[in-house]
Design goal:
Elements lengths: L16 E10 L2 E11 L5 E4 L6 H9 L12 E3 L7 H7 E5 H5 L7 H10 L12 H13 L15 H13 L5 E5 L7 H16 L3 E6 L11 E6 L2 E7 H4 L2 H8 L3 E6 L2 E6 L4
Helix pairs in contact: 4-5, 4-6, 5-6, 6-7
Length: about 280
């Protein structure tokens, strides 16, 4: 994908992320290979693939939790920077995952969990003073997701879906320009899935860039048009939902016969009928 151009003169805005000739190796085995990928500022994308395909490793490349093999030109660039500061990436990205949810094991009000996002902690850090402005930011983030009524509730008494949305608010309190949802609907009932997907729709409509990692096309909100299919530790396909969310491509991606349906911009995946 070419770098996005802005209207002012001939200036060129670099992509939010650019990955080129990146290879991640563990124990002598390539666990991800990316020849070329770029994501523009404000663009949404969904990463789709089976367990172990390399989706999480792809996200970890972006967040600098893993590093590719050395190249003379660094394979991963952030906003055109060859060696970006980790703090710059952390300020730009918020991450919500079911793994983070599993770490919630404390009896604290939801508001304090959200305040912890300011400091990068789950809950308020010791020996740190939280200002009235910090509390106001936390309440604003909860209200933005229409869950301000949960502010005083013990996080351990909330439903799985409610906790997941509180964790989204925890990221929003830092006002990131990009939110990564890593398999966000894992473990949710239909009500929780509905509200989480509505949360993604709200944030996308507000201009927040959404990067979604999932096994299921059902999680891909209508605002996300681009899908990146990951298979066997590499990019299998990269294109629009209209092109790639179809029976043949999904069957090839997951190596089983599948059927795809679409309704009002939402896609569903079914096992094909066997004769």
């Amino acid at each position: 994908m070419e770098e996005a151009r802005i209207d002012a003169g001939s200036a060129v805005m670099p992509p939010l992320f650019r990955i080129h000739d990146a290879e991640v190796v563990r124990a002598g085995k390539t666990i991800l290979r990316v020849d070329d990928f770029s994501l523009a500022e404000g663009e949404h994308v969904a990463l789709l693939g089976s367990n172990g395909a390399g989706k999480s490793t792809f996200i970890q490349l972006l967040t600098r939790e893993v590093f590719p093999l050395y190249r003379d030109e660094p394979p991963v660039r952030f906003r055109g920077q060859e060696r970006p500061l980790l703090d710059d990436i952390k300020r730009a990205l918020g991450i919500v995952s079911s793994t983070m949810h599993e770490q919630v094991r404390v009896h604290l009000p939801a508001e304090e969990i959200v305040c912890g996002g300011i400091f990068g902690t789950l809950g308020l850090p010791m020996h740190r003073e939280v200002s009235d402005a910090d509390h106001a930011r936390a309440l604003e983030a909860l209200d933005r997701l229409h869950i301000a009524s949960l502010a005083d509730r013990d996080i351990m008494t909330l439903s799985t879906g409610q906790v997941r949305r509180v964790l989204v608010a925890r990221e929003l309190v830092r006002n990131p320009s990009v939110l990564v949802f890593d398999e966000p609907c894992t473990g949710l009932d239909p009500q929780g899935m509905y509200h989480l997907r509505e949360t993604m729709r709200t944030l996308a409509a507000e201009g927040c860039s959404i990067i979604l990692v999932t096994h299921y096309p059902e999680d891909i909100i209508p605002a996300i048009d681009r899908v990146l299919l990951i298979k066997d530790a590499s990019i299998f396909a990269d294109g629009s939902k209209h092109e790639l969310l179809c029976d043949d491509v999904m069957s090839d991606l997951f190596d089983v016969p599948l059927t795809v349906s679409e309704h009002d911009g939402w896609y569903s995946l079914y096992g094909a009928h066997q004769g």
